[in-house]
């Protein structure tokens, strides 16, 4: 239940081109990433910014969401890169389509 609340709270003011995964388990983060890419494409967005955080609140300070989300995006064929201005974000190039 807490993850649903965190997700709703963190994404309340976001448009279709941003999804904030703070407070999510890896499993939930993957599910939300899949939904967010589909929705962003439907809304005609060219990019999707996925906020995964830097892992500072993870056990031992080791990020879990970022590597899992990046692996998911690779398996789905989405071109993506780390946001050069914020290490806790991934930018997906939706305009290129799936590779």
TrEMBL record:
SMART domains: SMR (SM00463). SUPFAM superfamilies: SMR domain-like. Residues 19-95 form the Smr domain. InterPro entries: Smr_dom, Smr_dom_sf, Smr_domain_protein. Pfam families: Smr. This is Smr domain-containing protein. It comes from Rhodonia placenta.
